[in-house]
Amino acid sequence: MTVNLRHVELFRHIMRLGTLTQAAEMMSVSQPAASKMLNQLEHSTGIILFQRMKGRLKPTRDGELYFAEVQRTWESVDRLERMTRDIRELQFGRLNLGVMPMLAGTLIPPLLTRFCQQHHKTSVKLHSRSSDRIVEWVIAGQIDLGITEHATPHPNVVSRMLARIPNVCAVPEGHRLASLKTIRPEDLDGENFVSIGSPDRRAFVETVFEQAGVLPRMFIDAPMANVASALVANSARVTIRPIPRDGLSAVGPVPGLENYYLMVTHSGATLSPALGAMAADEIVNGTRRPELEGFRPARFFS
User: Fold this and answer.
1) Residue 151 phi, psi (nearest 5)
2) Which of 41, 61, 122, 228 is the most buried (most CB within 10 A)?
3) Could you tell me which residue, 16 or 298, shows the higher pLDDT?
């Protein structure tokens, strides 16, 4: 059985409007053409949909049952049309986002709040993991976009620079360095130091200290910046990290030490409309998005 959807649409209009004449007008066809379409629908379905009584159409019991199913189908088609329109207008989608813990608890929440207000039908899932794990997920196609602090040579990963932010020295309240306006590596000579992140980051920091001829005591290795901040807040130790928003005293910036944040995506993946709305203009085309103004590195130097 092959059913012509235009014939079904005519039947729906008859049931909703009550007469063949009004249904024909709604379909922009003549009444004889509409009558022929209705006869063809009954023939193709094998169902007598109406009783003809003195020029009027009265739905049969089978016709009422058929109409109930047509309504359910039409509602699904309407939902599909709305979803298509929303996707086209960047109002609907899903975004899997992987972010380093240091950003997930500070800069990302207000950014995502603004994004969701503008794209309220977009579902966002936020994952907070280390840079290495985020890169692994991008390679595996488990997230749409990641924000990390280092690039990777992997051929399946595309990296784009998002921001370059200076590091500061976070110290406990009342520490001897807390009153300084600027800090040099030499000022940390002999301090109990909390190292953050990967071995590569630690080696880089140690190189800066070595070039300055100083030797802080590498007291603790912390996996993430928020862990290092907690250690600093509860001891006489210090750490170097991107500018914090945790209330700790911060001295800096520290010359020669900067954090680079990159957007990483899979090289074979096409950005979803929702993802493109947030990142494409800003990163690929260089167009400044006004909703991102509050998150640029320049805010640290105003």
Assistant:
1) -85, 175
2) 228
3) 16
Q: How far apart (Å, rounded) are the C-alpha atoms in residues 254 and 193?
A: 14
Q: Which helix (H) or strand (E) holds 240?
A: strand 238-242
- For residue 141, count other CB atoms closer than 10 A to its CB: 12
Peptide bond into 155 cis (omega under 30): no
Highest mean pLDDT among 19-28, 120-129, 205-214, 236-245: 19-28
- Those residues whose C-beta lies under 8 Å from the C-beta of residue 74, and which sit 6 or more positions away, are 12
- CA–CA dist 149, 131 (Å, integer): 6
For the stretch 51-96, pLDDT in tens is: 988 778 999 999 999 999 998 888 888 777 776 665 565 555 677 8
Nearest to 109 by CA among 93, 126, 134, 123: 126
Confidence of residue 250 (pLDDT cuts 50, 70, 90): low
Beta-strand relationship, 92-99 and 217-222: unpaired
Phi and psi at residue 232, in whole multiples of 5°? -65, -45
Distance CA 9, CA 24 (A): 11
Q: Which tokens is 244 given?
A: 């914090």
Domain boundaries, the chain: 5-88, 93-162+261-301, 163-259
Distance CA 282, CA 213 (A): 41
Interacting residues of 48 by C-beta distance below 8 A, sequence separation 6+: 42, 60, 62, 63
The partner residues of 99 in beta bridges, in order of sequence, read 128, 147
**Torsion on CA atoms 21, 22, 23, 28, rounded to nearest 10:** 90
Class in CATH terms, 5-88: mainly alpha
- Number of residues that make up the chain: 302
Q: Considering only the top CATH level, what class is 93-162+261-301?
A: alpha beta
